[in-house]
């Protein structure tokens, strides 16, 4: 996976957006809540960061080139130190799961608003 393919995948998710932060990071968001982080800086020690389920956190961190995410590991976020730390299909599934976990923590009113907007726009992408 590359930054370009990561960006294309993240932005293909319903209502996903992006913004920059901390000078060289790109945040992928749903309703202004981040679900994936990457960097424009090739020398950065982490390539991407995403949220995972608590029961998968320790298992992922045992794998080579996967570490607890600096500053946000306590909330079950992991970072990949290499783009190929996980197979591309597993990265995509992990990002989908991160998106779902963040979506589920949005206020119910916001979830309903997004779901209603998706239906009225004829979007076929699943929010959950």
Count up the helices. Answer: 4
Basic shape: globular
- Compute the CA-based radius of gyration: 14 Å
Please state the structural category: alpha+beta
Strand content: 15-25%
Low-confidence spans:
none
| Distance between the ends | 24 Å
Order of helices and strands: HEEEEHEEHH
Number of strands: 6
Helix content: 25-40%
Mean pLDDT: 90
Q: How are the strands ordered across the major sheet?
A: 1-2-3-4-6-5
**Major pleated sheet:** 6 strands, antiparallel
Descriptive overview:
The chain is of the alpha+beta class and 128 residues long. It is built from 4 helices and 6 strands, in the order H-E-E-E-E-H-E-E-H-H. The protein has a 6-stranded antiparallel beta sheet. A hairpin with a 2-residue loop joins strand 2 (25-30) and strand 3. The protein starts with a helix and ends in an 8-residue tail after the last helix.
Key features?
23% strand; six-stranded antiparallel sheet; 128 residues; globular; alpha+beta
Explain briefly what this protein structure is.
The chain has 128 residues and is α+β, with helices and mostly antiparallel strands. It has four helices and six strands, in the order H-E-E-E-E-H-E-E-H-H. The longest helix has 17 residues, at 88-104.
Topology diagram in text:
Elements: H1 3-12, E1 16-21, E2 25-30, E3 33-39, E4 48-51, H2 54-61, E5 66-68, E6 77-80, H3 88-104, H4 108-120
Antiparallel strand pairs: 1-2, 2-3, 3-4, 4-6, 5-6
């Amino acid at each position: 996976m590359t930054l370009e393919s990561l960006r294309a995948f993240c932005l293909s998710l319903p209502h996903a957006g992006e913004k920059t932060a901390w000078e060289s990071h790109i945040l992928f968001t749903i309703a202004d809540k981040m679900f994936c982080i990457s960097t424009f800086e090739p020398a950065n020690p982490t390539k991407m960061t995403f949220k995972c389920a608590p029961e998968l956190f320790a298992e992922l961190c045992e794998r080579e080139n996967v570490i607890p995410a600096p500053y946000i590991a306590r909330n079950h976020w992991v970072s990949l130190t290499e783009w190929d730390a996980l197979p591309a299909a597993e990265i995509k599934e992990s990002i989908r799961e991160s998106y779902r976990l963040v979506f589920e923590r949005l206020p119910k009113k916001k979830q309903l608003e997004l779901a209603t907007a998706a239906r009225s726009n004829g979007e076929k992408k699943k929010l959950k």
